[in-house]
Amino acid sequence: MRPADSEHLYQRRAYVLAQTFFIKDNQQELILLAHKYDFDMLFFDQMVDFQQAVLVADEDDLLVVDLDVLYSLQTADGNRTLFLRDLFKQLPANRDYVYLQTEKQSGRFLLQQMLVESNCLAYAEKPIANDKLVDKLFNLFAQARRNMAGKVMLVGLQQVFDLAILQERRIQVIEHHELQSLQREVRRLQPDIVVISEAQYRRTESIVRILKRNLEADPNLEVMLLMESSDEALARRAVADGFDSLIMHKASDVLSRQLINRLGKIRLARDLISRDRATGLLNKIGFQQAASELIKQAEQAGKPLGLAVIDIDKFKTINDTWGHYFGDIVIKRLSLHLSSHMRAEDLLSRFGGEEFVMLFWDCELQDMIKRLDGMRIGFNALVFEVAPGQDKQFSFSGGAAAFPALRSENELFLHADAQLYKAKQAGRNRIVG
């Protein structure tokens, strides 16, 4: 019951070389779980097929090798079972692999050493529950996005970090020296990390408490103290005051890479919290944070905004008739359809279930309704194969609201939601603004 273009439904893939356990017992469940996390799993039990697949795999795809294949595969001459080094030689070079091993294998340090020195992205120990394996693979997909842009604010620091290294990772560096405006600027610019010099902290020890105890502060903000001395008493006070971490002054390139590693973990954790795992879109928390910031920018720039709430028509009937798995496919295809119509400066989110919320930058109400109507008509045209030889098409309804007529994200959402209700009452498959 997958749609005809299902090969394009999931943005990423995990290619799995395995001959026992996963292939025989867990393949279907693993695939279903992976689809929930917006990736697909393709299984191979022959090295030659896996080799060919790796050669055409995208850079962001994961390559998974169950080390039990060592006991099933033979060398080219067919005289003996593969050893680990033989396996490495057969795997295409210049790619990293996720290795699955048994508890006995994981207890051999030399084996782990050989793995991490030979194109090992990660390894895990079997037996491992299907849902946990899929969750860990999803986290690896998310970690691959660690080079995404971030913001770091330096307070009382100059020429400490290697700016070239940070700029290469698209990390924005903001230098700030005015304590009176620090709290306001942190709230306005929303950096991921604030690094405070030891000298600045000595002058104003309440600085981190001022940043952390503001209810409007980002709870994910990490505040670091750059220590110039080995003053243990000062370090104790800093930890007690609320610094998340203390880092010692080192060479600028070392400090910069240390900052990049920390920023990567922060961005990963934030992404996991703010995104819907089934579609990869912003979830309710992520949308509300991003929308509030966009509304502030629109107010400063004098730009109009449009917010829309859409809902798949008769979605409960879809689930009841063809099952929740098929309902997930409808949601996924709608998310991809909507994404293709969004500009880089717009926001698209899945609030839960079959409900999606969008925010359009620099867009008047009538223009937004016209865009939404085009999306609606396009979705109506998508064909879903619900059974062999049986196709169905579905629809959605939507409600719209405009800024600055309505000022806050909450006001915009409530009005658009009320308009959505009118669309449903008027017969569905329409947009009401």
List the helices and strands and how they pair.
Elements: E1 12-17, H1 22-36, E2 39-44, H2 47-56, E3 62-66, H3 84-90, E4 97-102, H4 103-106, H5 109-116, E5 120-126, H6 130-143, E6 150-155, H7 163-168, E7 171-176, H8 182-189, E8 193-197, H9 198-203, H10 207-212, E9 222-227, H11 232-241, E10 245-248, H12 252-274, H13 284-301, E11 305-312, H14 315-322, H15 324-339, E12 347-352, E13 355-361, H16 365-381, E14 384-387, E15 390-392, E16 396-403, H17 409-425, E17 431-432
Helix pairs in contact: 1-6, 14-15
Rg, alpha carbons: 26 Å
Q: Mind summarizing the main beta sheet?
A: 5 strands, parallel
Number of helices: 17
CATH topology of the largest domain: Alpha-Beta Plaits
Fraction in beta strands = 15-25%
Task: Report the strand count.
Answer: 17
User: In terms of per-residue confidence, which ranges show pLDDT below 50 for 5 or more consecutive residues?
Assistant: 1-6
Query: How many domain modules?
Result: 3
What structural class do the secondary elements suggest? alpha/beta
Please characterize this protein's 3D structure.
- The protein is an alpha/beta fold.
- It folds into 3 domains: 6-143, Rossmann fold; 150-274, Response regulator (Rossmann fold, 3-Layer(aba) Sandwich); 284-432, Reverse transcriptase/Diguanylate cyclase domain (Alpha-Beta Plaits, 2-Layer Sandwich).
- Helix content is 45%, strand content 22%.
- It contains 17 helices and 17 strands.
- The protein has helices spanning 22-36, 47-56, 84-90, 103-106, 109-116, 130-143, 163-168, 182-189, 198-203, 207-212, 232-241, 252-274, 284-301, 315-322, 324-339, 365-381, 409-425, and strands at 12-17, 39-44, 62-66, 97-102, 120-126, 150-155, 171-176, 193-197, 222-227, 245-248, 305-312, 347-352, 355-361, 384-387, 390-392, 396-403, 431-432.
- The strands form 4 sheets. The protein has a 5-stranded parallel beta sheet with strand order 2-1-3-4-5. Strands 7-6-8-9-10 form a 5-stranded parallel beta sheet, sandwiched between helices.
- Strand 6, helix 7 and strand 7 form a beta-alpha-beta unit.
- Helix 1 (22-36) crosses helix 6 and helix 14 (315-322) crosses helix 15.
- The chain is flat.
- Residues 1-6 have low confidence and may be disordered.
